[in-house]
Write a structure and sequence with these properties.
Layout: H1 12-17, E1 27-28, E2 31-32, H2 41-54, H3 58-72, E3 78-80, H4 82-88, E4 91-96, H5 106-119, E5 124-129, H6 133-145, E6 149-154, H7 155-160, H8 162-170, E7 174-178, H9 185-198, E8 203-206, H10 216-224, H11 226-239, E9 245-249, H12 254-260, E10 270-278, H13 289-292, E11 294-298, E12 301-305, H14 330-337, E13 341-347, H15 348-362, H16 368-383, E14 388-393, H17 401-406
Parallel strand pairs: 4-14, 5-6, 5-8, 6-7, 9-10, 9-14, 10-13
Antiparallel strand pairs: 1-2, 3-4, 11-12
Bound molecules: pyridoxal-5'-phosphate.
Length: 413
């Protein structure tokens, strides 16, 4: 089955722009929905009611805005990358999510959902984490609001990301090792869901990306949309026009959907998502889900997945742990389906080269995830000399030093 045979994209984009998606069933066209065990349905319905009641209420928005400003450090800067622009030939701007508290965009979602959990009367938070970044953001948000926090993490990831495990513990979270399944993010999500089902009233599940069953992809998008809203206003103020393009890296898809949302209605703005091309095109060598995946269900949502001919979800590879996920948020599958966003991939080597380029030209060490977007911007610049592009710099690269020592710095003394 090809993507375009599922439904006709006619007018679907207009529905999204008009705010009619996700629809009442939590779908973005054919994608999204709620594919979970019966036992989880009441919890998701309660969450959906809570989102409807609180998310747009003035008192919630006021409380969220105050935390974003005084604790997260928003608005984050929009930085003109002058020397990089000179080298690459387009005018490149950086939306600085690396400057947000805890070093990445994930905190926007974590503090928003933690505030929501409080309003819903939850007494504790559970979260999953892969690379540890969402675990750290959740632990920080929970400490800030005085909520106990349990983070599920694959035992393999705990070994690979030991400093983040320590950070979570310092921030007061309980980190639970998951040794079942693939002992990485996929298994950690399963365990967090199991914990939530055991006490859906007292526990709140703080999901870390724009994935999972409805209403999570919607909720996370709304909480991350502040990125694009700020970037659009900041760019308009500085340049007096919209950019020619915006670009962001895509793992589960939260920083990118947050960046894209305000630009989707601006048809003249080109939107590009960059996935992890890893070592190459073969199944298992990358995490480029939109580029190489096929439709299927993972973690409660119908979207694109990296799977084999029998529908077995495949392991992924990327030099950046945060992009290493075999699924992608359903709204991205939709945006690809209707042709509004172009998805491409950048490989490990391109991302590493982009880390070096940004360090040398701008004095900014980007996260390896964000470096994929920088690599995409370089390519875009080559074909759009003089054009303007905003890159979502989703996080800072300090956390990647062990990987950078083994790659870029290898042999240097
Ligand atoms: C987690 C992470 C990502 C990938 O997650 P998305 O949900 O796709 O945004 C990208 N960049 C950084 C810095 C991250 O920590």
């Amino acid at each position: 089955m090809t993507l375009s045979s599922i439904t006709e994209p006619t007018d679907a984009l207009a529905d999204l722009v008009a705010g009619r998606l996700p629809d009442a069933r939590g779908r973005f066209g054919p994608f999204g929905g709620r594919y979970v065990p019966e036992t989880l349905i009441p919890a998701l319905e309660r969450l959906e009611d809570g989102v409807r009641q609180h998310l747009r209420s003035p008192s919630f928005q006021q409380e969220l805005a105050a935390e974003l400003k005084s604790w997260v450090g928003r608005p984050t800067a929009l930085t003109f990358a002058g020397r990089l622009s000179e080298r690459w030939g387009a005018r490149i701007w950086l939306k600085r999510e690396d400057l947000a508290h805890t070093g990445a965009h994930k905190i926007n979602n974590a503090i928003g959902q933690a505030l929501l959990a409080k309003r819903l009367g939850a007494g504790r938070i559970v979260a999953e984490t892969g690379a540890g970044q969402h675990g750290v953001a959740s632990a920080a948000a929970c400490a800030r609001l005085g909520l106990p926090c349990t983070v599920y993490m694959g035992s393999i990831d705990m070994r690979r990301q030991a400093p983040n495990v320590d950070r979570m513990r310092l921030l007061g979270a309980t980190v639970v090792a998951v040794s079942t399944g693939d002992a990485t993010l996929r298994a950690a999500i399963d365990e967090a869901l199991r914990d939530w089902v055991a006490d859906p009233l007292g526990t709140y599940y703080l999901l870390g990306s724009a994935v999972g069953p409805h209403p999570y992809p919607y909720l996370v998008r709304e909480l991350q949309a502040v990125i694009g809203r700020e970037a659009r206003a900041q760019f308009l103020e500085k340049a007096g026009a919209l950019p020619d393009a915006v670009i962001a890296c895509v793992g589960g898809g939260s920083n990118s959907i947050g960046m894209f949302h305000a630009f989707v209605p601006e048809r003249e703005v080109e939107i590009i998502g960059v996935e992890a091309g890893g070592r190459g095109e073969a199944l298992g060598d990358n995490a480029a889900t939109v580029s190489y995946g096929r439709p299927g269900v993972l973690h409660g949502t119908y979207s694109l997945l990296l799977q084999d001919a029998d529908g077995q979800v495949q392991e992924t590879h990327s030099v950046s742990a945060g992009l290493d996920y075999s699924g992608v948020g359903p709204e991205h599958a939709f945006l690809a389906h209707v042709g509004r966003v172009r998805y491409e991939s950048a490989g490990d080597e391109e991302a590493l080269a982009a880390v070096r380029a940004l360090c040398e030209a701008e004095g900014i060490l980007p996260a390896l995830e964000s470096a994929h977007a920088i690599a995409g911007a370089k390519r875009w610049a080559a074909s759009h000399p003089g054009g303007t592009i905003i890159v979502c710099l989703s996080g800072r690269g300090d956390k990647d030093m062990p990987t950078l020592q083994q790659t870029l710095l290898k042999g240097e003394k």
